[in-house]
Every structure is written in C-alpha cells, then in structure tokens.
Amino acid sequence: MANTDPKGDIDYVLSDALVFISDEEDQGIQRGVKRSAEDAALVQEDQVKPTPAKRLEIDGEPSKVELDESGPPNQVDKPAEPSQTTVTPKTTEPSPAGHKEKTYTLVDQESEIKQALANLRECSEANSLLAVDCEAEKLGRDGKLSLVAVATERHTYLFDIKTLGAKVFDEGLRHLLQDPNREKLMFDCRSDSDCLWHLYAVKLTNVLDLQLMQIIHQESDKSHPYYGRVMPRDFQRRIKGFKKCLEHYVDDQNFARIKNSGLPLMGKDGVNWMKRPLIKQLLEYAAVDVQGFFPLYCKLKSAVDTPSAKKRLQVGSQRYLDLYQSKSVRIYDKYELNAFLPWRVLPDSVNETFYRQEVTCTGCKRRFPRSDFTKTQLRLGSQKCPVCKKIDKGC
Ligand SMILES: [Zn+2]
C-alpha cells in the first residue's frame, strides 16, 4: 500500500512493469493499473481547508503507522555520524552553473541550524532556486519524517528532523520553505506537502514540480508520438517516477549507482530512515535525490520558458501541493495512489486555471464541475472523474 519512496523508485503500489510500460504507445494507456485488493471503504469526505494540527486521526480506522503520540519525533537516540561528507555524482553534461562536484552536510546539532540556513539563503540569493525533498518512514501525515534535504546547485543540507525535531523549522527552515520569493524544485510534492503541513505546520509555497514539468515537456517534444494530437477524453496521462526521469533525461550512471545502492537499505516502508546514526548509503541517497533535481530541471526547463507555460506549471504545482494535504483523511486506496496524472491537476491552458468544484468524485473524493460527469452517473450517485473511471477499468 504505502510506498517507501513516493518519488517513484518503487512506483507507488504498482510494479514497474505495469506502470511505466509505455509512455509512447497508444496501447500503453490501455494497460498497467493493477486493481488493488485492499480497496479501502469509501469515506464520505471532501477536500476541506487544512488545519495546522500535528496529525489528523482517521475516524474509526486504525492508524496506518504507529506514531509516537507524545509529539514530533524529536528525541535523540545517539550522536549521528560525522556531519560533513562529500559525494561526487558526476554528470554527463555540466550542470547549469558548471559545477561537477557537489557536497552535502548533515545538520544534526542545534548549533548548526542557523549557519546552515544562513548559507542556504546566501547561496540561493543569485537565482533564488532551491531543491527540496523529504525522506521519511511512510512519507505523509501518518508517517515519520527523517530528513529534509534542501539544496542549491552548489551544496545540499540534510536537516535531521528525527534528531532535532520541530526546532529546525522554528529556527528558520519553515520560513525558507514558505518564502514566496524563492522557487523550490520538487519531484512529486504531494506526500512531502502532506507530511510537512500536518506534522510541522509548514506550508510549502512557490514549488515547481518536476514530475509535472516532465508532462509538459513531453507535450512539447516533437519526436513524441503524442505531439500535436488531440487526445480523447478517456486518455489519461501517466506520470513517471524520479528514477525513470533521471534515466531518461539525465542518464547519470553515478546517480543511478548511489540510488540503487541506497534503495534496498531503506527497509519496509522506509523504516530505516528513522534509525540513528543513518548509514552513509542512505545519506548519499538523500543527497543524490535532491541534487538530481537540478540536472533534470536543466533538461526540462525549455518546456516552461514562456510565461503561459510557466504559469500552467505553477498552477499545477500548487494543486499538487494541495492534493493530499487538503484531504481531511488519507485513504491510500487505488484512487489516491496510482500512476495517472490526477484529473484537472494540470490545466489544459493558462486560461483554465479555475474550475468549479460542484460534485464529488466517488473515487478520489475530489470535487469537479458537474459537466465532468455523465447524467446517468449523477442520477445513480456513482459519478467518477475520468481518471477514476480509468482505474476502475483496470487499465
Ligand atoms: Zn476521481
């Protein structure tokens, strides 16, 4: 059910072969989504305004993960490993600024927080672009946050939330992540946003989601079979995982090596992210993950080099941030966790940045215009959005 790595390395609840079998063949859209045997009971809930509660309970359902109810995981187990480490993922092409060697710093002492944040603010002044990623045991409001990785092109800071707790956010990381003047590169920000808001009252702002950017890039790729075609309404686009995107666009063997060595060490649901000291391979994995956002962005950014395309990405990214975070409960069923681009997340054009939220889809529980559903569906009270219909077909 829960994925260890919602960035796509474990491809959600589905197998690689099923999910990413084809992003270039029409018939690919007819296959791939495996029905979940554990469809959760449909809970009548709509999107509601989020509250900065530490954690929301699921009414009448056991927690997916046993949480320490005493509060955020801020207890110190042991002093962590030496804080300063160097990892050198080589890139096949120079990064935008031409830096080939990158380093990361583990911030696991209170005395280090302010300096790390000051360095991040200073380093990002030039272009204001940061990369942000979270590592957790079961990333989301029902999980436990281990690390927040924040990177500039030059350097990555791994903030140890397990060890330092909410203090990291209170001392300035919250302000940085919420700063509307700094763009943040993320990859599939849905679970990160859910986790940061519900556990630490951090509302991510001004995010450019690379998973959505890849979709836009694909649309503009003249060599792609879908280019220029008007797709039927029942065509639903698949999203790619981060690992797949790196392989396809960046093709960096060293990135792949470090990610592949770290992946099996996470444990079930990422339980090993909460152990201290964190092993070197996992620290490197976390650093490589977030550092990989920059070369990927470099490859994809041509797709959003017009104001209208950029606006479309910004609107889509904001909806992505809100998607899980704004739910009153998380269900983790097939309608929530699947490999399709959620319905109406990415506006078709910059002119469609608003839609009426009139009727609730009985699958994903999101609200859409009445015109998105058939009259028969509405009469029977079984209306589903096109993505949820696709999932029901077992495609
Ligand atoms: Zn739906």
From TrEMBL:
Biological process annotations from GO: piRNA processing
Domain (3'-5' exonuclease): residue spans on this chain: 104-305
GO cellular component: PET complex
Compositionally skewed regions (Polar residues) per UniProt: 82-94
Stretches the record annotates as Disordered: 24-102
Residue ranges with Basic and acidic residues bias: 54-67
GO molecular function, one term: nucleic acid binding
PANTHER family from the UniProt entry: PIRNA BIOGENESIS PROTEIN EXD1
Protein name: PiRNA biogenesis protein EXD1-like
Species of origin: Acanthaster planci
Lineage, opening ranks: Eukaryota, Metazoa, Echinodermata, Eleutherozoa, Asterozoa
